[in-house]
Amino acid sequence: MSDQPRRDRLPVHGVLINPAIVLSHLEPAGRWSAIAIMTKSAPPPPGIYVPAVLFFKENEDFDVPAIKAHILRLAQGGVTGIVVQGSNGEAQHLSHEERKEALRITRETLDENGFKDVIIIAGTGAQSVRETKKLNQDAKDMGAAFALVLTPSTWKPSMSKEHILRFHREVADASPIPVLVYNFSTVTAGLDLDSDTIATLGEHPNIVGTKLSCANLGKLIRLVTTHPAQEFATLVGRSDAFLPALVLESTGGIMALVNIAPKAHRRLWDLYQEGRMDEARDVQRLLSHCDAITGKLGGIGFLKAIIAKEFGYGGLTVRAPLLPSSVDRLSGRDAELMKELIDLEKSL
């Protein structure tokens, strides 16, 4: 290997620095402002991440035993990390203290059961820079390793590309933990970040990845071929596209269906790593169908209903305006496919 430094890196005190992070973001006045030179934060490791659902009692207080049982089953199922207070964790329905408590319970459960290596990513997006900064600090204090940040959408007409870049950069500048950009237009009033915007944000030293809940594979491949995986994790956001995303060199996924079937997702991951594509495609067939079924029959409420019935913990309570769901809504081929996935999960 040549001793010459890479052309896209500058030697600073013996460390190769990306010059893109030596100059910070474009200020409103049109000036580039220098920031302290720092190395790029490391992204989350490749693997399977789950946006964990959060269980409530009928009075909507936390059902702590059910939450702990769920976290433990996910860890035992082979997940790389757990997203706490994401969209599936009903983050928008939680107070600041409840958000901290959910993180505390999760970290405590993992540590007490020998899963200290399982990473916590905290959903911290809020409608202002100030509140998002506070949530990021809380996340670090409660043991999260990364923050997953939505783009604000209350003032959608004002959210130009310049505003979006400025928001995420200001948040990342102040964050005590590395940040992932969360692209989920369903919960941001249709605001969908394009690959150019996400790629530009990826130049920031403390922005280390993205979750693409859009599952747009064109966007995904543009990102994975712009930023190397060791600097920026491009994570697919739906099980529906898990195997296609891996083929396109995604570093993994943050996927709601993992709540039901962590072992099945781990099985697909292992089959792909071993080059056993026919078997991997067969698992993907089930994941794609069941991902769509879950969305069609109630999303978060349906996830809770399946977990309660098939794994013996948790209840159906969701916080309004969400509505509870029921496994009784399953019928015909949908019921057959979901049973096939559950049978696979329980066999692994």
Task: Kindly describe this structure.
With 348 residues, the chain is α/β, with parallel strands linked by helices. The chain has a domain at 40-275: TIM Barrel (Alpha-Beta Barrel), CATH 3.20.20. It has 11 helices and 12 strands. The protein has helices at 64-76, 96-112, 129-141, 161-174, 195-201, 217-224, 242-247, 262-273, 277-296, 300-311, 332-347, and strands at residues 10-12, 15-17, 23-26, 32-34, 47-51, 81-84, 119-123, 146-150, 179-183, 207-212, 233-236, 252-254. Strands 5-6-7-8-9-10-11-12 form an 8-stranded parallel barrel, surrounded by 6 helices. A two-stranded antiparallel sheet has the order 1-2. Strands 3-4 form a two-stranded antiparallel ribbon. A hairpin with a 2-residue loop joins strand 1 (10-12) and strand 2. Helix 3 runs parallel beside helix 4 (161-174) and helix 5 runs parallel beside helix 6 (217-224). The model is unreliable at 1-37 (pLDDT under 50).
What kind of sheet is the major sheet?
A: 8 strands, parallel, barrel
The CATH C-level name of the domain at 40-275 is Alpha Beta
CATH architecture of the domain at 40-275: Alpha-Beta Barrel
Number of helices: 11
What is the arithmetic mean of pLDDT? 88
Strand order of the largest sheet: 5-6-7-8-9-10-11-12
CATH superfamily of the domain at 40-275: Aldolase class I
Structural class: alpha/beta
| Number of extended strands | 12
Helix content: 25-40%
What is the overall shape? globular
Q: Please report the distance between the alpha carbons of the first and last residues.
A: 43 Å
Binding site for pyruvate: 254
Organism: Dentipellis fragilis
Active site: 182, 211
GO molecular function, one term: 4-hydroxy-tetrahydrodipicolinate synthase activity
